Amino acid sequence: MVVAPTPLVGPPEIVKLPVTSQPPLPQLHIAQKAASNAAVAKKPASFGNPCLDLYFHVKPYSYGTAFKHLNRLLPLAWSHDPLTTLKLICNLVEGGYDSSGKGEDELFYTAAFWLYQNHPKTLACNVAPIADSFGNFEHILEMLLGIVDGEDENAKRRRLNRGSSYKIKFEDLVQKKIGKRKSEQIAKAKKVIEMYKRDPNFQLLHEQVSDLYAEHLKSDIQNLKIYEQQQLDNAYDPTQWELELTPAARWCPSVDCSFDRATLLCESIARKVFPREECTQDVSDREEEADYASRVQERLMDEVLTPLRKFMNSGYDFPAERRSDVVKEYMNDVNDAGESEIEADAMFPHEIIRYVNYRNFAELVDPQWKAMVEEIYVKQGKLKNCLAVCDVSGRMVGRPMNVSLGLGLLVSELSEEPWKGKVFTFSRNPQLLSIQGDDLKSKCRFMRRMDNQDWDGDTNFLKVFDLILEAAVNANLKPDQMIKKLYVFTSDQDFDDACGHSWRTDYEAIQRKFKEKGYGDVVPHIVFWDLTGDEYVPVAWCTQHGVTAMRGCSKDFVECFLDNDGDVGPDQVMEAVISDEQFQNLVVVD
């Protein structure tokens, strides 16, 4: 038998107020506002699949236009594929506010509010995976507060201000008390109580959130007590059992803090951590509900939150923070254990390139690269007979440079003669060069120093194809030995800018020349990859003959490129992103 939740009573000030007629439930206005915004927004070109539209057109870097499309696309995508839409909503979680104050998570909060309006049970039943797998408890707090506030523009603005203010830390709003209860705070508490009483969807969500906190807090305080006892007994051995705490205590609202006054979460959590039937010692059986609520909230602060926060503030690193750089952790492990521990699929090409100049890992990069090439790509026959045009100019820095070098080298090593070990310079006067060097470091050094004297922001693709055709004719290659694809790795420009000519005219000339030499049916296809940014956006990928153009440099995109043998389309990219393990715990209920 399921026991109905005990009604919230709120702070003492509310209990003392005279009973008045029930006010109407708070009205939610965002749907109408979003609809009006969408009406005036210019619609981007559709992929023919609303889920793809939602993924590609609603992105943090397009912050200004993203909100204009979000609420228009959400119902369309949900009708098309509810589970995929739910995954895409959770994928909007970007991990909080950055130092510049950008509120990328606003997209998630807006989408979560839409879920609450249209599919409230689904939102409530996915509170745990949202907190544990995608964001953190901060996202859950903000989401609940947005629903209480009505998610109007003022609420959105207040949330952005919380993220951008350098004077007020978010933790202070969660943990510190604020002044006396004024009429505004009492009104907020009354509003939550009424919503909890009269809106079963809000009650379900509120209960799921407090369940999440209570479960984690009870487990954390129990584990902390075990740890402290083992320390006293000088018996703590992290190889046998290691203390792992969740951030629940850090983000649990304290009694009378800003978030608690607006949501009354602390009362609900305290009731579950200290249920009445388990804490009635030395207390009258006739204890009023309000007195019980006040007592257990004090116990929650004194016996759970304070000791956990004190320990966390002493320098404790959460497991997720300790594993923030998985690649570097792997390299350290292999460095300690030796080459026998190398895992061929542990790193992507650009990740290995990143460590080429690290003195501590100098002896590991070559065996790691060799294992990756031989155990994965050679055995699977991927990326055979392709060539790369690698931009190594001054604008290529950081990840774009590493991806250009890594994928350029990989493509050259996987090709057969006469293409094996070759790479094109990105230049108005391109050259087909044989990569020189005895190890990965020297090969990278050679590629970084490739002749760019004629570089002027573009390359002569007509000459690139002339050189390809010349090499094929000189080697007397059969048509099926012609390279299949020409990968162009560059940054900060689209294909038209890089081409510098009328591509239609050039492509017609290329087709004519290849046909004259007996290769008319096997003209290589250009894959033009602008390595700008962390996102994937296909640009002009079906408007130019013989060209697929795309942009982005995220790890998911690189993985998708390699897994699909260089054939990357919108469907593959989206599926690669939402197929990770954390998405598998999401469920659609209503």
UniProtKB/TrEMBL annotation:
**What is the top-level taxon of the source organism?**
Eukaryota
| Boundaries of every DUF7788 domain copy | 385-571
Q: Which residue ranges run through the membrane?
A: none
Every copy of the DUF2828 domain together lies at: 45-313
Tell me which stretches of the chain form a coiled coil.
none
Please identify the protein, giving its name as recorded. Uncharacterized protein
To which species is this protein native?
Pyrus ussuriensis x Pyrus communis
